[in-house]
């Protein structure tokens, strides 16, 4: 027996659901006005993931300096990623979770591994599980296997690798995309050893990562090249969370001549083929439903029963997979029955009826007691 199309779709969605939530951790590690572009890099990614559906409650935004309020800013309260200043990235719809000197190596690792203080608010916690896809984006100044934080400390490739392993052991992610824009960026994911991590960076060993252009009125560079061309692809091709473009499409769009460095991609820890990985698996938001393994068989049996009822309803003459005999005589139409006061019965009404019955019984008892007293 063939299942109705809607039921087949329902079954297939339950079977193929890979992750049930999307999170993003976006980190700018640089201070000072001349690093304006690093803040613009992060805010550009922040705008993109929000545009594709990830809510602020599932985005951890770490900004190491408040460039928007810097006294050197000719356009106070704003941050732009293009010299035409068509889009204010800061605006009035931004939620910064870690700001200024809160952006430290220790806080970053505690965030990833969930080793935060008990009184840490939810907005500063990465509340993921083994069905969460996480997009981690970092930008700043770095070198061979290290990234600076605030020009005061460094995080190494080993530190991040070990933090990711703790996350895997603690079932804090399903799949992860790690993207980093810094000098010698590709060395930062060279030490990873945990499962289901897809990593990409802006430049290889001994290569610098370059800015794209400057705004003469702002006085500094406003975005880096690697981030600029990632955003260009996402803005032009991924218009909504229903986009079918894949990570392979994004990585294939990288051109060394435009980026001025050699972007890298590491896939050996990632089990899926890139042509099957949607960009929105990391940059967008999903709301799939996960079914517990213990109840999955019962759920499928229930759906099968529903499909049988649907077939019986749409094809009354069909029984046990066969149609009724063609030789059956024509039945005399049944007399029309007038339906009077058909009432929809709901489960909650059973309690109401029970309450009414108990009330009536108590009334009878009270009347009997009163009558006995009078007599």
UniProtKB/TrEMBL annotation:
<feature type="active site" description="Nucleophile">
    <location>
        <position position="183"/>
    </location>
</feature>
<comment type="pathway">
    <text>Glycolipid biosynthesis; glycosylphosphatidylinositol-anchor biosynthesis.</text>
</comment>
<protein>
    <recommendedName>
        <fullName>GPI-anchor transamidase</fullName>
    </recommendedName>
</protein>
<keyword id="KW-0732">Signal</keyword>
<dbReference type="InterPro" id="IPR028361">
    <property type="entry name" value="GPI_transamidase"/>
</dbReference>
<dbReference type="GO" id="GO:0006508">
    <property type="term" value="P:proteolysis"/>
</dbReference>
<dbReference type="GO" id="GO:0042765">
    <property type="term" value="C:GPI-anchor transamidase complex"/>
</dbReference>
<dbReference type="InterPro" id="IPR001096">
    <property type="entry name" value="Peptidase_C13"/>
</dbReference>
<keyword id="KW-0337">GPI-anchor biosynthesis</keyword>
<dbReference type="GO" id="GO:0003923">
    <property type="term" value="F:GPI-anchor transamidase activity"/>
</dbReference>
<feature type="signal peptide">
    <location>
        <begin position="1"/>
        <end position="17"/>
    </location>
</feature>
<dbReference type="GO" id="GO:0016255">
    <property type="term" value="P:attachment of GPI anchor to protein"/>
</dbReference>
<dbReference type="Pfam" id="PF01650">
    <property type="entry name" value="Peptidase_C13"/>
</dbReference>
<feature type="active site">
    <location>
        <position position="141"/>
    </location>
</feature>
<dbReference type="GO" id="GO:0006506">
    <property type="term" value="P:GPI anchor biosynthetic process"/>
</dbReference>
<comment type="similarity">
    <text>Belongs to the peptidase C13 family.</text>
</comment>
């Amino acid at each position: 027996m063939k299942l109705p199309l809607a039921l087949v779709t329902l079954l297939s969605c339950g079977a193929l659901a890979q992750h049930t939530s999307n999170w993003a951790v976006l980190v700018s590690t640089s201070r000072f006005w001349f690093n304006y572009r690093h803040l613009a890099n992060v805010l550009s990614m922040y705008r993109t993931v929000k545009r594709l559906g990830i809510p602020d409650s599932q985005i951890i935004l770490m900004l190491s300096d408040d460039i928007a309020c810097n006294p050197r800013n000719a356009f106070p309260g704003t941050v732009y990623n293009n010299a035409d200043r068509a889009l204010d990235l800061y605006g009035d719809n931004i939620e910064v979770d870690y700001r200024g000197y809160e952006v430290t190596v220790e806080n970053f690792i505690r965030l990833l591994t969930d080793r935060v203080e008990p009184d840490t608010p939810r907005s500063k916690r990465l509340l993921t599980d083994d069905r969460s896809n996480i997009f981690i984006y970092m930008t700043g100044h770095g070198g061979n296997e290290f990234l600076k934080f605030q020009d005061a400390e460094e995080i190494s490739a080993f530190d991040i690798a070990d933090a990711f392993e703790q996350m895997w052991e603690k079932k804090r992610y399903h799949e992860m995309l790690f993207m980093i824009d810094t000098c010698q960026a590709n060395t930062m994911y060279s030490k990873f050893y945990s499962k289901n991590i897809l990593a990409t960076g802006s430049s290889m060993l001994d290569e610098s990562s370059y800015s794209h252009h400057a705004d003469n009125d702002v006085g500094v560079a406003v975005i880096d090249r690697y981030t600029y061309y990632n955003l260009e692809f996402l803005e032009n091709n991924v218009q909504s969370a229903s986009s079918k473009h894949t990570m392979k499409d994004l990585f294939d769009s990288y051109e060394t001549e435009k980026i001025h460095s050699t972007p890298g991609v590491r896939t050996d820890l990632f089990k899926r083929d890139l042509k099957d990985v949607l960009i929105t698996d990391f940059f967008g938001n999903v709301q799939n439903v996960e079914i517990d393994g213990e109840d999955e068989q019962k759920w499928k049996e229930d759906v099968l029963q529903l499909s049988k009822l649907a077939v019986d309803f749409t094809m009354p003459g069909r029984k046990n997979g066969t149609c009724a005999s063609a030789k059956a005589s024509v039945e005399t139409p049944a007399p029309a029955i007038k339906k009077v006061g058909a009432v929809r019965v709901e489960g909650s009404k059973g309690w109401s009826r029970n309450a009414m019955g108990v009330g009536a019984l108590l009334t009878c008892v009270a009347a009997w007691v009163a009558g006995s007293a009078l007599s």
